[in-house]
Automatic annotation (TrEMBL):
It catalyses: adenine + H2O + H(+) = hypoxanthine + NH4(+). Its cofactor is Mn(2+). Residues 398-564 form the Adenine deaminase C-terminal domain. The keyword Transport does not apply. This is Adenine deaminase.
Length: 569
């Protein structure tokens, strides 16, 4: 809402010290992310704005900031709330007390299942969250034509929401092959949002292809995984968003890139991070302390997480402790370790009561798994040659290897070989439009027995299952159908762990604390099956994503992402 003349008069009076400020943080120190200095002095707030720094103030309400250091609120520049396995309202309650005062989300997970209905659900949630949740309009629904999604959003569909107050622009443009092939529908979306913010998604793009991608007005990338890749993108004017999620962990590789010259063009994001990891490590606070521990300059880490992030998205009212800026502040017990003491959002201290008055938003997509029960025979792979393309799972990465391995056969069918870490992997279309089944093999899960199944399968979210036995794989898929989505672990014919995600097959209806407990139990069950991966279900969830190199699988079969084509054999 626009500020009124009377509100400006009030701000001016409080800034001049003619009247008491609404809230003053006294006797504190604060980090100036412009100069890099840690300054002493009061911070005066009038409503949701900072009105005084570097001076002494009295407040109607005062906080003793002795021993604390104040920094601007953290900004998560790219997140899929669905991938936290909780609703946007629970995401809000989970991460705001950890200092994340602004998050920029792309709801393309739920949009690939429910289309506009899912988008409207997120916009309704964003209007009620205590944090400032901004929504980018999902650009790739479906992500490619090599998979079956539950919906389709064209440029005309997205334009209806272009001027929504919570919308910044177009979400990550994953279909970079469509850009290079000049596909009409792809270019229509880019043209429709020309001049508005357009998020990028450009893993390993370089040279002329990167130039072509950037020439379409795309501004950033969160898929950067090495320092040389980051530097090329920065040289070409692309903002690099340093990611550390539950699977993709890039802070270690990219911390050396954080320097005085580059920090204005960086940001941090979580992309996909679940409540268990948030409980054990943190959210944006974890990324900040990780980068500092890896030797990145402290002030420039905080600059990237606040001011640089805000400027990159055109949010000029936040990211700095200065008069006129939004009063989104984090009070820290320890600046170097980013230990959060309390959080101020919109000029008010965040407490449990902060979340009590938010509007309720009804869940959607509670019957989204439209798949009939399966049998072990549905997993059969005819033997057409022993040497096969096999997905090589790389721990902590969503990039995979394209392996060529000898797969054993029995009775004319290719079978899993757990002794050699070759498991069967299948993707079942679950949106009711067809009965596709993609079949293949994967290495890297190290399951000696059993199966893991998930209805979270980026980005079309069909059911993905990996296992050592067809029988256990069938049991896992059928249990997912009963749950209407989630994660299931099966061993020797018995379900040994599960998490129900009935909202669009992506999110729980439970509080984030409950989801954390279930994830902890599920992780222990899978570890007992011999799987060494830190996040096996999220690692599995990225195997159907055919826009990330090098070999993936969808309901249509194995996909050679480098060729952007189905694998014939």
């Amino acid at each position: 809402m626009a500020v009124t003349r009377d509100e400006l008069k009030t701000r001016i009076g409080q800034a001049l010290g003619e009247t008491k400020a609404d809230l003053v943080i006294k006797n504190t120190r604060f980090l100036n992310v412009v100069t890099g200095e840690t300054a002493a002095g009061d911070i005066a707030l009038c409503g949701d704005r900072i009105v005084g720094t570097y001076e002494s103030y009295d407040g109607v309400e005062e906080i003793d900031g002795s021993g604390l250091t104040v920094v601007p609120g953290f900004i998560d520049t790219h997140v899929h709330c669905e991938s936290t396995c909780v609703t946007p309202m629970e995401f809000d309650r989970c991460v705001l007390p950890r200092g994340t005062t602004t998050a920029i989300c792309d709801p393309h997970e739920i949009c690939n299942v429910l289309g506009e209905k899912g988008l409207r659900y997120f916009l309704d949630c964003a209007e009620g969250t205590a944090m400032d949740l901004r929504v980018q309009l999902s650009s790739c629904v479906p992500a490619t034509e090599l998979e079956t999604s539950g919906a389709r959003l064209e440029a005309a569909d997205l334009l209806r929401y272009k001027d929504h107050p919570k919308v910044l622009g177009l979400a990550e443009f994953m279909n970079f092959p469509g850009v290079f092939h000049k596909v009409d529908g792809v270019l229509d979306k880019l043209a429709a949002f020309d001049g508005r913010h357009i998020d990028g998604h450009a893993p390993l793009l370089s040279g002329r292809e990167l130039n072509a991608y950037l020439s379409c007005g795309i501004r950033n990338c969160h898929e950067t995984t090495s320092a040389p890749e980051a530097m090329e993108k920065l040289r070409k004017g692309m903002q690099v968003l340093i990611r550390d999620g539950s699977v993709s962990k890039d802070v270690h590789a990219l911390a050396p890139v954080i320097q005085p010259e580059t920090s204005p063009f960086l940001g941090f994001c979580t992309d996909d991070r679940n409540p268990l990891d948030i409980a054990e490590e943190g959210h944006m606070d974890h990324l900040i302390r990780s980068a500092i521990r890896l030797g990145a300059p402290l002030a420039h880490v905080y600059r990237a997480a606040t001011w640089s992030a805000a400027r990159g998205f055109g949010l000029f009212d936040r990211g700095l402790i200065a008069p006129g800026q939004r009063a989104d502040l984090v009070l820290l017990d320890d600046l170097e370790d980013c230990v959060v003491n309390r959080v101020i959002r919109n000029g008010r201290v965040v407490t449990p009561q902060t979340f009590a008055g938010r509007p309720a938003v009804s869940p959607v997509g509670l019957r989204s798994v439209k798949l009939h029960p399966v049998t072990a025979e549905d997993f059969a792979v005819p033997a057409r040659g022993s040497v096969q393309s096999v997905i090589g799972v790389l721990p902590g990465k969503i990039i995979t290897a394209h392996l060529r391995l000898e797969v054993p056969a029995k009775d004319g069918k290719l079978v899993a070989d757990p002794d050699r870490d070759i498991l069967k992997i299948c993707v079942f279309a679950r949106h009711g439009t067809n009965q596709n089944v993609g079949r293949g093999f994967a290495s890297g899960f190290h399951l000696r027995e059993g199966a893991l199944a998930s209805s979270v399968g980026h980005d079309s979210h069909n059911i993905c299952v990996v296992g050592a036995s067809d029988e256990d794989m069938a049991i896992a898929v059928n249990r997912l159908i009963e749950l209407q989505g989630g994660f299931v672990a099966v061993r020797n014919g018995q379900v040994v762990g599960e998490l129900a995600l009935p909202l669009a097959g992506l999110m729980s209806l439970e509080p984030f604390e409950t989801v954390e407990r279930h994830l902890r139990s599920l992780r222990a069950s899978v570890k007992g099956m011999g799987c060494p991966l830190a996040e096996p279900f999220l690692q599995l969830a990225f195997l159907p994503l055919p826009v990330i190199p090098h070999l993936k699988i969808t309901d249509r079969g194995l996909v050679d992402v480098d060729k952007f084509a189905l694998v014939e054999a």
